[in-house]
Amino acid sequence: MNSLATPVASGSAPANQTRGQLNGILFVALFAAAVTQLSALPFIANLGLSPLIVGIVAGAIYGNALRDGMPESWASGINFSARKLLRIAVGFFGLRVSLQEIAQVGLPGLTVSVLVVVSTLAIGTWAGMKLMKLDRDTALLTAAGSAICGAAAVLAFESTLQSEPHKSAMAVGSVVLFGTLSMFLYPLVVHLGWLHLDTLGVGLFFGGTIHEVAQVVGAASNVSPEATHIATIVKMTRVMLLVPVLLVIGMWVNRARNNGLTDDSGTTGTKGKLAIPWFALGFLALVIVNSLHVLPAPATHTLNTLDTFALTMAMTALGIETRIAQIRQAGPRALMTGAIVYAWLIGGGLAITFGVERLLG
């Protein structure tokens, strides 16, 4: 009888694991649905806080205060949402960008985007590692969130670097703080006449230096519809740069590993395959699909809505996996890195905007 019982027990283990993973994914989906409703409340929406940001905050609160009540078998579902679902969702983010829109702002928009992204990544990484003594991943995540597209960039870099969740949480915190500040500060200085920029200049500056897409739209809409249109396109041009930047970062990380350099955990890297972020190539493919207008507009809208929900699930799962004690260790230094990057975005971004508009505008 025992010999018959053993196969049943061993066969039920994988089934229980699968059931636990599905329950974990369902839990994250329900959590993300609640977060989506919460982020739609007027006082949150008016702050430009996307469901992604609300999701990581709410997830972190749950993960640190209530996670003990969650079955351990659900952990694999949480991890799936924070890793594999994340890659798929970042890939589908490409349906929000089209080559035609980017062409509308032409060479000035592309030049501002490239200069801001490259300089911000370099300065943010250098300031984080050399001045603030942060580990490589935290410095890169903080710089990427500011340089490219806020929380979505943090998610994409987190997937490529395979870093720990609390490092992503710190980077997103920087996006929330300084991106929200920009929504109020940028329109104010324009209305006070402190920025001597025309409509094109305002669009280039707002779209080239504000963190999140929603924050760009929120800030520019307080200036003019024309500035909002230009700023949004410039911002989406920065989003497009996510693909080449991730490919370069993947090659850099792989070379450091192959050269046996010490990573941020203090262990020596081992030789491995090239860390190509395939989801970034999927992102680029879907940009092309969107540019060719292969999909009907309602289908694209539906896919974008589902993609936002999937990204919210990923952010919520990352929040659940985040531990406040880990954030405390590097919190002030990560925040200072974000402040340094923000100062560069304002000062350096203005200089880049003035220069590009004078030469190419």
TrEMBL record:
InterPro entries (alphabetical): UPF0324_pro, UPF0324_YeiH-like
Cellular localisation: Cell membrane
Origin superkingdom: Bacteria
Keyword Oxidoreductase (UniProt): no
Topology of the protein relative to the lipid bilayer: Multi-pass membrane protein
GO CC annotations on file: plasma membrane
Regions crossing the membrane: 20-36, 43-62, 107-127, 139-157, 169-189, 230-253, 274-295, 334-356
Record keywords: Cell membrane, Membrane, Transmembrane, Transmembrane helix
PANTHER family hit by this protein: INNER MEMBRANE PROTEIN YEIH-RELATED, UPF0324 INNER MEMBRANE PROTEIN YEIH
Assigned protein family: Belongs to the UPF0324 family.
UniProt name for this protein: Membrane protein
Originating species: Caballeronia mineralivorans PML1(12)
